[in-house]
Amino acid sequence: MTEKNTLRNRLLRSEESRQSVIKYLFAIVLSFVIAGVIAALFGYNPLLMFVNIFKGGWAGRLNFGTTLEKLTTTLLLATAFNICTKVNYFNLGLEGSMYLGALAATSSRDCPAISMCRCA
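Above: the chain's sequence. Below: its structure in token form.
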């Protein structure tokens, strides 16, 4: 009896996750379509626009590294915002918190001013 229930729960969860993935893919495709329509309204070629966006962000060693650098920062800030939202704490100062956290992470114990700030 429990084997049937667990199999049924797995199937239900997989169906829910499939619907969730379809929802997200639909949102991504819709955003590309809307961006293409807006570009076409302003007289630009939407296909050329997307090709240039891809080339600018991913083609070349320097561009790829810069994209990964910005992506990492954005993902960490999104994770911080998600954690704050899950515990019902609304925080808009994420960029300032990131800089303060970077300062605290790179501060050494030899600097008394920063060490005192950590203890306070």
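The chain is about 85% helix and 0% strand.
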